[in-house]
Design brief:
This protein has 222 residues and is mostly helical. The chain has nine helices and no strands. The termini are far apart.
Length: 222
Amino acid sequence: MEDRTWYPALVAKLESHLRAEPFARDGAHDLAHILRVARLSGAIAAVEGADVDVAIAGALLHDLVYRPKNHPESPRTAELSAELAAAWCAQIPALAPKVEAIVHTVAAHSWSGATDAETLEARVVQDADRLEALGAIGIARVFATGASFHSKLWHPEDPWAERRELDDKAYTLDHFFKKLLKLSDRMTTQEGRRLAEARQKTLLAYLDALRTELQAGPPSAD
């Protein structure tokens, strides 16, 4: 990372903010997740020719407001994070001139948000966040999220939703088909697509292994 004097101060402020939040974060949306997205955003931005400062700062602030996935305000977290990010960036001299660009990356990162990613930096942060939902890390995160609101691992009689509607609030495995397996095709940068390819294969390999194990059947009575 280049010399970014604002980075340690922003991370320290973020750590303090997370400790004081009213909702305990699940393991999928903790500081480690935020820092991984920031690292991915910086790497993708460098390859794509985007403003690396805007991408990293936006990634650090993308989950500034947290609500559990079953909370009524959960779909608004990108919007709420963007509002708070504007105030934070305005207080940091090195970031203040780029506040509008940074805030847009925060507002536009969400899968379910209403804001389209209109800049390269916003697309970089969006791709970085989506990469976190793929691969081995993505598998760990999706089950951590499901556990946070007591979702079952999968439907006991119909795990692959062959005879029912998908319900990823009740069964975590359903989230693979409602969202995760669609992310690779939704990447909008060339580097994001390249990185997603290997992670997508990890998801598919996991599902193949799970299907084999679930089809093993009960032990023999012999």
